[in-house]
Structure formats: structure tokens, C-alpha cells
Amino acid sequence: MIPTSAATRAPAASKRASAQILKSLNALTNPSIGLRPSFILIQQLQPHPVGRRTFSTSPTKTAIKEFFPQKETESIRKTEPAWPHPAYTYDQMNAVTVAHREARTTSDKFALRAVKVLRWGLDLATGYKHEKATALNVHDPAAANKKYAMTEEKYMIRNVFLESVAGVPGMVAGMLRHLHSMRRMKRDNGWIETLLEESYNERMHLLTFMKMSEPGLFMRTMVLGAQGVWFNALFFAYLISPRTVHRFVGYLEEEAVITYTRQIKDIDAGRLPKWEELEAPQIAIDYWKMPEGNRSMRDLLLYIRADESKHREVNHTFGNLDQKEDPNPYNSEYKDPKKPHPTKDLTHTNEIGWDRKDVI
Ligand SMILES: [Fe+2]
Ligand SMILES: [Fe+2]
């Protein structure tokens, strides 16, 4: 793949010529693009800084459709995100690790089992066979790579599907707590905002991937069906046992951290060459305030993984609290601010969630 940054800076005539050359080269060098049109197409490069392409670097038939182009209006220049994203440092993001909270109660075990079943289904649907690949890799690395290697397209399918369902639990929980507060005429103690913010953040993950890919009809139908089932299942589950749902989401987020960690490792190992060249879309640069020079796909995955680690922590913490009485520790002022406590950003982290006795 040829970087296009030089081409975008060239004068108009040479820009057109470059575009033609790039089109021809991409057609030759990327025969695999669009192999699974019913699933997803992924954008190969993000040549223009605002995410709009002045020319296509993909063959015409695989050009990425702009799902939500920015709408020009007479008076409005820009609409800011409703929940500004907290700042993360690179040291904090690099310190994010895969972690697992041991299932201690029956409700924990039920939540963990439910996540394992879902994970199995998603692996099957998206062709993700990490365990098998690792096992085969021990005896025959070449065969393992040929048979099970995750490609950029496969990862993108997984990410889009994952993010499209990940934004539901926070919205369901926030909505139910909002209704409960009004119905019972009681305070909510600050949980609603964090839950809605989580679902907003997940939707930003999805919108970011949508700027880099184009899901096909099959994928869109899967998302539609999954959302219908998923929303209703969570709605009833949260009414029955909110604590179990928070634990379940905590375990789900553990899986999300694993998935994004593998993608980062695969980029570092040179297994995802198309993503080495890929730049983060403008929507992501604005939302995470990604610093100049650190706007690659890898950087983007670091931010997203850090978000998932925060969801993991928040939901495990919520699963440890008294659902009716306890205030939201992520929205609170502490009597002793020097003592480590839950925060919205990554200042203090606790992978397996804060215990009630330490925060309330
Ligand atoms: Fe996410
Ligand atoms: Fe998440």
C-alpha cells in the first residue's frame, strides 16, 4: 500500500494523476478487498484530514459509503460531543492490561457463563478462533497463520458488531434507573449519567469504525436483529437483577479489552499491514483529542481499549454496590481526596472493580 499524504498535498493536476495511479495500484495490490461484500468493506487509507476523501484510493466498486456526512447548515459550524471525553496519557493507556475478576457468587458465575456463551456465538459468527490458532501455532505456525489468521476485515466485522451491541446495556440501565427515580420519587444518586455516558462512548466507538468501513446488508440485518433481542433481554434482566447485569457487562468488557489488546499486538507483529497505514478518522481525533503525530489506527485502538477497561472497572464496581442506596463513586467528591478512589479518567484504576468498603 502506498501512503497518500504526499498525493493530497500535490497540486490539482498531479493529484488526479496520483489518484489514477493509486487506483490502479490498489486494484492490483488489494485483490482481497471486498471479498466479503455482504459483511463489511474496510477503508484502506484516510488520506484527507477531515475524513472526506477528495478522491478514492479504492477501486470504484469498493469505495466506502459515507454513512453520516457532516451536514452543512447556515449558522452552525460544529456540534461538540455531549459528554467530552476525559484525557488519557500514553503511559496510562499503555498500562491497561487484560484482567479477570474471579466469579465469587452464584450471580457472578451466572453472569460469567452468559458471557462465555455469547463469546462462543460471536467467535463462530466472525470466524475468530484464537484458542485453536494458538494451539496449532505450537506445532505448525505456517498452517496456523494460513488457517486462522485474523485479517483487518475480520477484526473490523467483529469490532462493528461488538460496538453495535455494546452501547445497549448502559442505555437500558440508565433508562430504567431514570424511570425508577421518577416512579418512586427518589434520588438516583448519580448513576444515570455514568451509564448513559458509557453507552454514548460505545456509540462513538461504533461511529468511528463506521468512518473506516461499510457494513453490508447481511451485517446490518444481524445488528438489527441482535439489537431487538439484546435490548429486550437486558431490559428484563435489569429489572430482575441489576447487580447481575453489571457483573455481566464487567465480564463482557474484560473480553473487549482482550480483543483490542490482540489487535494492537497483531499490528505490532506486522500481521495487519493495512492498519499500519491507516489513520484515525476526524471524528475520533476530535472526540479523544488525539495529539498530532499520534493519530494512527494503533493509537485509536489504545484509546478504545482504555475506554473498555474503564467500562470493565465501572461495571464491576457497580456490581459490588448496593443498587438502591449507594451513591455513584465515579460522580462523587471524597472526604479524603488524597486516598485513591474511582475516577472518570485513568488517574486511579482498579481492573476488577472497587470493593464497596473501599469507596462508600
Ligand atoms: Fe466499545
Ligand atoms: Fe465497552
From TrEMBL:
Signal peptide: none annotated. One of its GO terms (biological process) is alternative respiration. GO terms for molecular function: alternative oxidase activity; metal ion binding. Fe cation 1 binds at E163, E202, H205, E308. It comes from the Eukaryota. It is a multi-pass membrane protein. InterPro entries: AOX, AOX_sf. Binds 2 iron ions per subunit. Fe cation 2 binds at E202, E253, E308, H311. Residues 314-360 are annotated as: Disordered. The keyword Aminoacyl-tRNA synthetase does not apply. It is found in: Mitochondrion inner membrane. GO terms for cellular component: mitochondrial inner membrane; respiratory chain complex. Its EC number is 1.-.-.-. Residues 322-360 have a biased composition (Basic and acidic residues). Keywords: Electron transport, Iron, Membrane, Metal-binding, Mitochondrion, Mitochondrion inner membrane, Oxidoreductase, Respiratory chain, Transit peptide, Transmembrane, Transmembrane helix, Transport. Catalyzes cyanide-resistant oxygen consumption. May increase respiration when the cytochrome respiratory pathway is restricted, or in response to low temperatures. This is Alternative oxidase. It comes from Polyplosphaeria fusca.
